[in-house]
Amino acid sequence: MKTKNKLPRLGVSACLLGHRVRYDGKDKAFPQIARELENSFELIAYCPEHGAGLPVPRPPMQLYIGETRPLLLVVQDKTDLGALLSEYIAHIIADIKARDICGVILKSKSPSCGLRTTPLYDLDDTASGEYISGLFAQALLDELPDMPLIDENDFLKEELRKDYIQRCLDYHRHINREMN
Question: Which DSSP symbol is given to 16?
Fold first, then answer.
């Protein structure tokens, strides 16, 4: 059996691992992730919002239509938190590269972690009908386009989960081959 530090590493949205980091002070624990993966992967928790210093609990945020890019705004007063989160996301991306993370499991519909499932709003808080990736998920897609990504809903689907795990193992072999 592999020792813990020799296991391939996966990043996981912290709330899915039971960390109480969500805006409402709760988690979105998804025990199947640990059950399915903890013997084969080292799971590394990431929460861009909490890591950037936002409090728990905190006012809810949404992604809004901007002129050139989506805006991450607090719903109540439209405070823009995009720059704060983007700065911290750059640190997470660097950490992911340094730790040879071979895949990330993201929280669907999150303004930071949603993977093409996050609703986009007009500034009057009307849903536009468009779904995009959250800021962290989009940064992963931009910076590490070959890295396997999945959200918890697709992880539930056996065929997608098996494919994701295989892609993570292939990616792990690829990044380790490049380092040698």
Answer: G
118-121 and 101-106 as β-strands: parallel, antiparallel, unpaired?
A: unpaired
Torsion sign (Cα): 58, 59, 62, 66: negative
Let me know: does 73 contact 124? Beta carbons within 8 Å: no
Q: What is the pLDDT of residues 51-87, one digit of tens each?
A: 999 999 999 999 999 999 999 999 999 999 999 999 9
Residue 39: DSSP 8-state:
T
> What are the pLDDT digits (tens) for 109-143?
999 999 999 999 999 999 999 999 999 999 999 99
6-43 burial code (b ≥16 CB/10 A, e <16) = ebbbbbbbbbbbebebbbeeebbebeebbeebeeebbb
Task: Give the CA count within 13 Å in the CB-facing half-sphere of 4.
Answer: 3
What tokens does 7 get?
Answer: 């296991």
